[in-house]
Amino acid sequence: MKLNTILLLALCSCPAVATERYSGANHIQFQHSEKPFVGSGFLLQHGQQVYAVTAKHVLFETMDQGIDHINIDGQVTQWQLKPFNEDTGVVTLGKLLNANPAEALDMAVLADDWLLFAVKENHSRLQPLRLADEAPQAGDELVTHGCTYQSQATCHQDRFKGHFVRMEGDNLLLKLNDAEPGTLRGLSGAPVLNAAGEVVGIVSNVLPDPDGGHYFAPFGTGPLKSFLLDESTK
Question: Which of 77, 142, 174, 188 has its CA 20 to 30 A from that of 32?
């Protein structure tokens, strides 16, 4: 699968504005440069801790800065989540908790497409979300919130919808209501929510539909849940 077929996608019907803010832009600073919008991320409440989550494959956009493994130590000077087109404060991220210097930054990261950060400071009004206890059922409407690269100049937060078909491995397969996957770049790492506003997936990938077209294929939360469970027992 070519990189440009999987990057930075969305569920879509006609966008509608949500009042709560769930998704922000990854703003990454390096020693001599910065990248102001590298996909999206969100805050996750788990127990008494608030974390930040994004998709692992957003690091593809940092390879020109020398990042070629799942490790940002010594290369990223600051990583923030910034709400779109608001001056309400930002989230400053801390340690990358699932860093792995032995894991190469290549297409294989799509098989485990999540990053989890500690939160150093939060001065934003991004709403922390919680993981869903139950997996979605066939036909459930799922929603993601955020902004695309195309709309970034004016977007505060749009809402995009699709319906759940089935699981394929760790990916949720969804059909978009009125859009073809691949048309809304910029949402990788945004949360995919159920009707209760709980996280069931992370915007990640696109997979072919044998009957024609493509499925939107966010990464499921199972591996993230397992990691958080291990963290809580340390």
Answer: 188
Residues 14 and 36 in one domain: no
pTM score: 0.91
Question: Which CA distances in Å does 51 have to 34, 54, 128, 170?
Answer: 22, 10, 8, 21
Q: pLDDT tens track of the chain, all 234 residues?
A: 344 444 434 333 334 444 789 999 999 999 999 999 999 999 999 999 999 999 999 999 999 999 999 999 999 999 999 999 998 899 999 999 999 999 999 999 999 999 999 999 999 999 999 999 999 999 999 999 999 898 899 999 988 899 999 999 999 999 988 766 676 789 999 999 999 999 999 999 999 999 988 899 999 999 999 999 988 766
Q: Domain span at residue 94?
A: 24-128+225-232
Q: Do 78 and 148 sit in the same domain of this protein?
A: no
- Calpha distance 227→28 (Å, rounded): 24
Token pair recorded at residue 67 = 């990042």
What are the tokens at 160? 């995009």
